[in-house]
Amino acid sequence: MNDLIWVAIKFMFEKLLRIDRRIIFLFVLIALIVPLFLNISQHIAISPEVRDIYDSLRKLQPGSRVLLAFDYDPPSAPELQPMAVAVMKYCFKHNLKVIIMGLWPQGPLQANLAIESIKRDKEFKDNPPIYDKDYVNLGYMTGNELVIQGMGTDIQRTFPRDYLGNPTSSLSVMKGITNFSNIDFIFNLSAGYPGTVEWVLFAVDRFHAKLSAGNTAVQAPQVYPYVHSGQLSGLAGGLKGAAELEKLLGFYGKGTKFMLSQSFAHIVVIFFIIVGNVAYFATRGKKKK
Amino acid sequence: MEFGFTFSNTLAAILTIGIISFLWRDNPLYKLCEALFVGVSAGYWFVSLYYQNLLPQLFDKLGLTLIITPHADVKEGALQVLFKQGRFDERILYIFAGILGIMMLMRLFPNLGWVSRWPLAFIVGTTSGLYFTTYFQSNAMAQLKSTIIPLNSINNIVIVVGTVCGLIYFYFSKEHKGVLGGAAKVGTWFLMVTFGASFGYTVMSRMSLLIGRIDFIFSTWLGLVK
Amino acid sequence: MRREIPLIITGVVGFTYIIQFFIPHWPFNIMEHMLTDWMLIIFAFAIWLGVLNLMKVSLDRISKRTKDWPYALVTILGFLFIVIAGFFFSGGRRFLDPGTPFDYIYQFIYTPLSATMFAMLAFYVASASYRAFRARTKEATLLLLAAFFVMLGRVPVGDAMTSFLPESVRLSKFADWIMNYPQTAGQRAIMIGIALGIVSTSLRLILGIERSHLGSD
Predict the structure, then answer these.
(1) Residue B175 burial (CB < 10 Å; 0-12/13-18/19+)?
(2) Chain A (216-275) residues lying within 8 Å, Cβ to Cβ, of chain C
(3) What residues are paired with A235 via a beta bridge?
(4) Which of C16, C30, C42, C180 to mutate to test the interface with B (most CBs of B within 10 A)?
(5) At B159, phi and psi to the nearest 5?
(6) N or C: which end of chain B has fewer CB within 10 A?
(7) Helices (H), A38-144
(8) C146/B58 CB distance under 8 A
(9) Distance in angstroms (rounded) separating the CA atoms of residues A85 and A187
């Protein structure tokens, strides 16, 4: 009888090991879609490295110049766009002047999308951010780390015009800004190369800028040594980092909204790994006997 | 940004579903979307580089913009200063950058491909010179400095032991036996934790990307989620 | 001379940047500014080379009527579509302004295509984890456990599962500890090793010992 049960279990596990991958895809899809329709609030625990970003922003006085480096493209937007929106809302609310640029060509466009969404927000509808009063967008420049190297010496030489074609020297937000020593804080949103690593290597270690970063979850683990060494003053990693930043800055958005789907997705992946391993060892154990 | 069942959102949704259809099996709609993606990406880079890089950095500074479009809202370039005012403007040196750039494009022609070695040599020289100092300063010295910490807490001991044993693991000039082998083994454990954490974060990242697209379909396009 | 002049260029440019790092004064700072500005332009041409090469390969496929040649035509048409929109119908230098045809193509064609292409990886990571992730050895088990703790700790459900514990020892705090200490130590070891490798390779390139970037004669 026991042998019969064991044969049945082994048969079931062997079938499971050969399951069509499209069934796994379906499970993943359901795990991500269903939570979007549920209205369950979750407790977002704050990690120390995200709190460092918040503390750095809080120390800035009104009128301080904040450089936002948009080094990502649309695939990374679900993770980084909520961070960008939350930080920009904080800057506009506290009268911090925002200078936008990008080492990726899509970056400045993502910044524009973030600003358009802020202008639609009811908190900013009556007092929307104004170009060349509250923010400027210098656009994209190719050259990767050489752009940062150039900005460390002369930002206006590296970006002679903004993304609209206006001479940088004519912009009021850029008055008195020569290089990083005139920038009070840099927040880098990075999805890969060039990104946070290059900003640390050149802007922080070479030109002593103060830098915090928001990274995609793929890149975040590689950047933790810079947080520990103090080269980076805070790090928000992935969608969880975005949700934490939204909570600290007080601007809830998509980062918080997507966390339930994220939770379900992780549970599904862990479930599949456990089932795969149980099935593997169950069938392997019988073969060995 | 638009919301709702508009033409634009429907176009975006069709392209999204076209790519996702590959999960069922390869099909003509997926191949069409893939080919379109490649072409549009290439065009995006082409236009962006022209307006945001070459125009302000090369053509404006040399004065070619004013030669091609005399009524453009730009200051006089080096060529205008040289020929109208008869004096040397240091921006004329950018002509060498332009020449090197055109030499780079010679790679498109099989017989002239060797000409692109000069600008390639510039690129390799620049990145080598930059990386030699910056990687040594930031990724080697600064990291080693942060590892020299007092062993007065579990966390500090973990950092020091993990870093040292991890480095010992990568030392392949001597066989991993005895004390060295033991340290390399500990290093392996730390590296396994590192890779496991990286895998966990990778799963998080990939799922986030998909959540974004699903949100677009159900929230922005269909309006089923508020 | 086809190989010697590029080697000299690599060496001179490389040494200029190294010397400028230690002596940021005349004439090295002027040389470095000039070379940096030139590089920004050369990089742009290098990317243009990639784009034009793609068009050349696509045209080749169309002319030779290779398998799937109609898709090469779609690639070229997509390229021409956005280039024409960007150069002629989007207000020149103001091509990135919200509302221009270029911006429209970015939002409703480029963004869904690129975002979905990468979003597909979510499915593959789940499928690959199920099929290939096996705790065959002690090291693999450690890797798996670290992944589990981090995955659960970085979402609110981890704290919900350990809500019976004091806040300082819940799963999110444990995941934070893993990321900030053992994970950082391992990453630091990898980072230092890579940095030393980059330093030695850079020196070899500048001194001309490494010549693979020049290709063959």
Answers:
(1) exposed
(2) 221-222, 224-225, 227-228, 238, 240, 259-260, 262-263, 265-270, 272-273, 275
(3) A213
(4) C42
(5) -60, -50
(6) C
(7) 48-58, 77-93, 107-120
(8) no
(9) 12
* Structure confidence by residue, pLDDT tens digits, B37-76: 999 999 999 999 999 999 999 999 999 998 888 888 888 8
The boundaries of the domain holding residue C30 are 1-64
Q: Tell me the β-bridge partners of C150.
A: none
Angle between helices A238-249 and B178-215 (to 10 degrees): 70
Residue A213 is classified by DSSP as: E
Q: What's the total number of domains in chain C?
A: 3
- The answer to the question of residue C54 being in a domain is yes
Dihedral sign of CA atoms A130, A135, A138, A144 in order = negative
Residue C96 located in a structural domain: yes
| Residues contacting residue B120 through CB under 8 Å, at least 6 positions apart | B104, C6, C213, C214
Contact B210 A139 (CB under 8 A): no
Q: A161, B204: Cβ pair inside 8 Å?
A: no
User: Measured between CB atoms, does A27 come within 8 Å of chain C?
Assistant: yes
Q: Which amino acid is at A151?
A: M
Give the ipTM of the model, two decimals please.
0.91
Task: Give the whole-angstrom CA distance, residue A272 versus residue A23.
Answer: 11
Q: Tokens 């050489």: give the residue.
A: A146
Could you tell me if C80 and C105 lie in one domain? yes
Q: Which residues pair with A102 in a beta bridge?
A: A140
Token pair in block for residue B206: 């990939």
* Contacting residues for A160 by C-beta, under 8 A, at least 6 apart: A167, A168, B56, B57, B60, B61
Tens-level pLDDT at each residue, chain A (289 residues)? 788 888 888 888 888 888 888 899 999 999 999 999 998 888 899 999 999 999 999 999 999 999 999 999 999 999 999 999 999 999 999 999 999 999 999 999 999 999 999 999 998 988 899 999 999 999 999 999 999 999 999 999 999 999 988 999 999 999 999 999 999 999 999 999 999 999 999 999 999 999 999 999 999 999 999 999 999 999 999 999 999 999 999 988 899 999 999 999 999 999 999 999 998 888 875 555 4
Distance of CA A80 to CAs A84, A203, C198, Å?
6, 21, 30
Same domain flag for C56 and C85: no
Does the residue C146 lie in any domain?
yes
Say yes or no: C51 contacts chain A, CB-CB below 8 A.
Answer: no
Count of residues in chain A: 289
Q: Do the domain assignments include residue C72?
A: yes
If asked whether residues C115 and C172 sit together in one domain, one would say: no
Q: From residue B81, give the alpha-carbon distance in Å to each of B89, B92, B208.
A: 7, 9, 54
Q: Is B69 helix (H, G, I), strand (E, B) or coil?
A: coil
